[in-house]
Each structure stands twice: as structure tokens, then as C-alpha cells.
Fold each of these.
Amino acid sequence: MKNFNVIDASEIKLGMRFSAPIFFDDGESMFLAEDRTVKQYHISAISHWKIKTLLTFGHAIDGNEVDELEELDELDEEDVVDELEEI
């Protein structure tokens, strides 16, 4: 079985993405899905819960741009809100 890579939680920065999911130190509960962008609420959770380390089978990937799929998800959410307001 492949070993997890340990990430110092203080190294997690806004806009980072990883090639594999990131897990809490239990190795089972997911903190961040693969190729998803670290948001401010992730940074806040690390601070609030005093998280020291996180685990992943992957590595940080280049680029701080917002994932195109996340942009589409956000647009879809706005469309749903607009539709609900019309009802």
C-alpha cells in the first residue's frame, strides 16, 4: 500500500490545488477533493480546528487560477437562486 504524503497545514495557501484528495490526519475524512481550489473557508478551518498536518497521495499542482469547473458550479448556483426568486 502506498504511503500518504504528509502536508504541514501551515503550508496550505489560498488558491492551491492538489493532484489527489487531501485528508485530515485520520486518513479517511476528506478535507479537499482532487483538483479543487483551496478557499478562504479551508484556511479558516485549519486555524479554527488547529490542524497541524493533512495527508494526500498527491502533490500540489501549478497554477493559482480558479478551476473552470468551480466557476461553472458557481454560475449554476446563481442561476438556481435567480430561478427560485422568480417563483
Amino acid sequence: MTTQIEKIKRTIEPLRQEIINHKVYSAIKDLDDLKVFMQFHVYAVWDFMSLLKTLQGNLTCTSVPWFPKGTADTRYLINEIVVGEESDVDLNGIRKSHFELYLDAMKQCGADTYKIEVFTDVLKNTSDFDSAYLASETPKEAKDFVDFTFKVIESGKDYLQSAIFTFGREDLIPGMFISIINEMHKSFPDDISIFKYYIERHIEVDGDHHSHLAKQMTANLCKDNEQYWQEAEEAVINSLKQRIELWNGVHRQLTERTTTANSMLAIAAGSA
């Protein structure tokens, strides 16, 4: 099973490098650029939680009367991850999910939370994704990203859900982005302290402890089934491609923003 995990890692490495070296990171020049990034990325943070809770529902008994479900080892793995993701602590030691922590970070720096909050409110009340996308004017790339995740969720295949959870989200924050945030924090400590903390927690918890747990969970679910491993690899590849498209969407918006700003400056200079 370790061999199969390593095979997936080797196969997806080019895509992983494409994400880590994506041009979106170098396009983040100031706080306003970071706000745009967060307004897209928050959808990935939200649907990560949905994927997480789907796995918990599939791998453990969450109904009453209770009966043992699956193996205790796999139940432990997913429950341990859920504790850290759904009830972590913020800068003040207050329990929060990583999604709630991300919203706090957006509000602190002045990023617009309107779209994601309308999206989740409409979805909560109607269970209709199309209505939620329409009401919130969700960016197309974010919509496509969420749709892919929920396609895997709706497949009912826990080994696919575990695979994209494990490899589609792991270890994808480049050192360059961390450096940008650290430098930005020096100039705007009261604006991005929560986001800096979120990134640090993501690296500490998701990239280390949870990564090992998730790999073992995927191995437990795929076992020695070659078809499962092949399907898992294909799903992970598609998941990473969706991440690249999400970052492409952010980059396009940042480029358009820069072009508009430069045009305005040129007009102003011409008027003067």
C-alpha cells in the first residue's frame, strides 16, 4: 500500500509543482491583491470542510441507534482529522473551524465576504447549488472547483473522497507565498495577523499530522484493490487540475485589476 501511495505522489508531482509555482503568487503585490485571492480561495476552504464531513459520515456511525461501522483504525483517523479541522483554536484560544477562522481573516483585512456568506446561506436554506451560485455571483472558477468536489462526494465512493482529500489539498502552499505573507504582515500586522496564523496552522496541522493520517486512511480504504487505486489516482489528477483552474481565475482577476488601475493612472496623467 505504501508503494501505491508513492506511485500517486510520483504521478501527480508535475501538477503539484505547477500549482506551487503558479504565477498567481507573484501577482499578489499588496493587500488588495490578497483580498482578491482570499475571495476565491474561501470556496476551497468551505468545500474542504464538506469533503471532511462526508468522510466522517461514510466511515463512522453518526446515527442513532449506534452500531460499529468500518474499522476502528479508520474511524480514529477521520475523527482525529475532524477534531483539528472543525474545532481548532484561533489566536485567542477560542475554538473555531478552519472555515470560520478564514472568514475572520477575511473580515480583518477587509476582504469581501458577501459572496461566500450569501452562497452558504442560500445553500443552507434551499440545498440548491444553482440558486446559491446565482444569488452570490460565485466566480466561475470557484463554482467549477466546488462542483468537482461535490461530484466526488455524490459518487458515494469513500476511497475517492479520501484520495482527493489527501492528495488534492496537501502541501500546496509554496515558500514564496509564505514569504509574501510574512513581509506583508510587517507592514500590516493589524490587517493580516489572522490570515498569517491560518497559514501557519494549515502548514502545522494539515501539512504534517493530518497528512500522515489521511494517507493511512486512503491506504485503508483502497487496500489491495488495483481498480480503486487507479480510480483514486485519476480523481486526484482531476482535483489538482481544478486547483490550477481556480488559481488561473484568481490570476485573471488580478491582471484585470492591474490593467484597469494602470489605465486610470494613464488617463489621470493625460488630464494633468
